[in-house]
Amino acid sequence: MMAMVRLRSEPAAYYDKKEDVRMSKHVDDGIVVGKQRGCEKILEGLKVFFLLKVNGPLRLGVENCHLGRCITKIPTGWRLRCMDKLFDSLFECMDMKTANPAPTPGVKAEAKEKDEEVLEVEGAKSFRTGNGKQLFINLERADAQFSSKECARGMCKPTTQDVVRLKRLVRYLKGTRDFCLHLEPTEPWSLRTFVDSDWGADKIGRKSTTCAMIFVCGALVHSFARSQPTVALSAPEAELNGIGS
To answer: φ, ψ for residue 213 (rounded to 5)?
Structure first.
């Protein structure tokens, strides 16, 4: 009945060649992509084995929610944004519901320094909760991923300055909560990757940061900012490490 094959490159993704239908799952949530008749046949097959709640197809101009993201079909592609309740939860957790927005997610002067004052147990717990929320919100926010990564570096031993950095990022998110990721093809099939790095901006561990953006058919499909696992001894080495990643 079910002819779906699990992809070797992604174990949470499946493909039915006959119906030309693709499906991805995350724990007990899933999404099926393909022509309507093919999707319906796949769902009917799944109902034999599972109790399903189906939200229905994505229709033009109608917003649907999946895994904390609001997805809207637009004439030229798709639009994704984070759910409002996740922003509200972050602002409430950080006690910043009435805070003023910030124009940028961070400033260079906020880089982590030595001998910063470590937070008490309760303060550290609150910081980690807020940090976890912002990390989830910023999965597709290329504009805030560097600051998000810098805040995450304080998860082990949060300091007072880590709180300052996190609050600055939260204020930026407060003013940009309506930002969306547009998945709109603007050119024929193409795969373009842009990579950049700094060199030893981490004043403590002297590690560099790699940032990358991957475009398919002109649409941004993936981006990240990560600390490099090893210490680069020169700017060219840091760039090479970034390209290699």
So the answer is: -135, 130
